[in-house]
């Protein structure tokens, strides 16, 4: 049973500077809405539990749809469960500007990852309504379904439906931990495979997508800045490396006559962190999911398999990281006389943010008395999927201690409200 006494709104408004309530933007409303969403799927640890395609996610989307209607938006829900709220612009022939995020969460996650992007996008509409402003271009607020992917260990199902990305036959093979299939999960929230396939949109009608999201890192906190301009969204490449030596008895095999696969893998693991920094400041590489065989206490490891997750915000840099890591594995295997095999498991193209949108965001930050700061996004977002079809931009909001996907995830209300002002300025300057 969840703790129904947890009051996120109270915690948010406690240190709020009312001076940020300007031009129709209301900090208390933002806090109240974050709180209301947080009550859906609230865990014993005061975290969020709204997996994609769950009743909790569905209820949160229905709540946002209600707020959209109250704000005067025309609301549609597509066959993937994505919610779109549209504010008509003065120029019916102009391309649409889209903003939003998601409301699903990882199990026992935080209250800001996703919902903040949805609520900030909607708060701009509330501010415009209060001040009587109508944009030239139509503006849509979107809530994408299942960004996190905690149900099937593969996310972005909502944004992939909108873009037509993803192999439906592969999706139909997916099952969750309980063995429930993708089509059965859709049916559990009154969706269907046919409807999901029909959710694809003509994205030629859209000029850009901008997503506000918590940083999930410490850079903005170290700079003491409320918000920052995202320069690009890193695409991950996962490669499985297998070092094959020779298993043997730990007592009867001399140290000078061994082919210990774990020793070789260890040298490789130590080498990996030094590679990304030789390519760019935004490149990263992480070793994970290690398997040792035979994995006995008194047996020399004969085979070690491990995964390396490599990312950067441009395709060229991403490729360079992969090439150099593979090269390092080959050199180390050859040095020790063991066999090496490797297999690429996944590669997602990075999404660089166009310079003109970075500049426009920087100008919007300056307008709101925030020094422009540029940083990459190492994590994937719906903007990464939409950005393959439509120019995308992202604004990051300061995260306390860089914590995310955890009940301790926190962004100060002062920073959240400043992000609304920056987004509002950006959207008005994009008219």
TrEMBL record:
Cofactor binding note: Binds 2 Zn(2+) ions per subunit.
**One term of GO molecular function:** hydrolase activity, acting on carbon-nitrogen (but not peptide) bonds, in linear amidines
- Please tell me where Zn(2+) 1 binds in this chain: 102, 113, 213
Q: Which positions are tagged coiled coil?
A: none
- Which SUPFAM superfamilies would you find in this protein's record? Bacterial exopeptidase dimerisation domain, Zn-dependent exopeptidases
Q: Which residue numbers delimit the Peptidase M20 dimerisation domain?
A: 233-335
Record keywords: Hydrolase, Manganese, Metal-binding, Zinc
| Cofactor(s), by name | Mn(2+); Zn(2+)
| Residues at which Zn(2+) 2 binds | 113, 148, 405
Which family is this protein grouped under?
Belongs to the peptidase M20 family.
Oligomer and partners: Homodimer.
Q: What is this protein called?
A: Allantoate deiminase
Organism, by scientific name, is Pseudogracilibacillus auburnensis
């Amino acid at each position: 049973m969840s703790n129904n006494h947890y009051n996120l709104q109270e915690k948010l408004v406690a240190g709020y500077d009312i001076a940020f309530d300007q031009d129709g933007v209301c900090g208390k409303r933002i806090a109240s809405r974050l709180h209301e969403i947080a009550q859906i799927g609230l865990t014993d640890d005061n975290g969020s539990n709204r997996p994609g395609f769950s009743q909790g996610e569905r209820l949160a989307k229905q709540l946002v749809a209600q707020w959209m209607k109250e704000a005067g938006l025309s609301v549609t829900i597509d066959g993937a469960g994505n919610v779109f709220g549209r504010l008509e612009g003065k120029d019916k022939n102009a391309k649409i500007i889209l903003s939003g995020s998601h409301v699903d969460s990882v199990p026992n996650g935080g209250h800001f990852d996703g919902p903040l992007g949805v609520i900030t996008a909607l708060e701009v509409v509330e501010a415009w309504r209060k001040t009587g402003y109508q944009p030239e271009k139509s503006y849509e607020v979107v809530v994408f379904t299942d960004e996190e992917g905690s149900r099937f260990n593969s996310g972005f199902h909502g944004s992939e439906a909108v873009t037509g990305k993803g192999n439906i036959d592969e999706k139909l093979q997916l099952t969750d931990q309980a063995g429930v299939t993708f089509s059965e999960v859709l049916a559990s929230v009154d969706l269907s495979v046919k409807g999901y396939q029909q959710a694809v949109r003509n994205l030629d009608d859209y000029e850009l997508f901008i997503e506000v999201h918590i940083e999930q890192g410490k850079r903005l906190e170290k700079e003491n800045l409320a918000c920052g301009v995202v320069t690009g969204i890193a695409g991950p490449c996962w490669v499985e490396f297998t070092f094959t030596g020779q298993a043997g008895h730990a007592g009867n095999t001399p140290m000078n006559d061994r082919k210990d696969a774990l020793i070789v893998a260890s040298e490789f693991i130590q080498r990996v962190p030094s590679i990304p920094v030789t390519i760019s400041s935004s490149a990263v590489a992480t070793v994970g999911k290690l398997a040792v065989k035979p994995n006995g206490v008194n047996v020399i490891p004969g085979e070690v398999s491990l995964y390396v997750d490599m990312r950067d915000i441009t395709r060229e840099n991403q490729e360079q990281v992969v090439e150099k890591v593979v090269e390092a594995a080959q050199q180390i295997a050859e040095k020790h006389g063991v066999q090496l095999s490797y297999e690429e498991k996944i590669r997602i193209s990075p999404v660089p943010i166009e310079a003109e949108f970075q500049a426009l965001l920087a100008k919007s930050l300056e307008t709101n008395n925030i020094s422009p700061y540029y940083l990459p996004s190492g994590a994937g977002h719906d903007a990464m999927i939409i950005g393959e079809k439509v120019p995308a931009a992202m604004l990051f909001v300061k995260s306390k201690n860089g914590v995310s996907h955890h009940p301790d995830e926190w962004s100060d209300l002062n920073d959240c409200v400043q992000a609304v002002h920056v987004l509002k300025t950006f959207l008005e300057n994009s008219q």
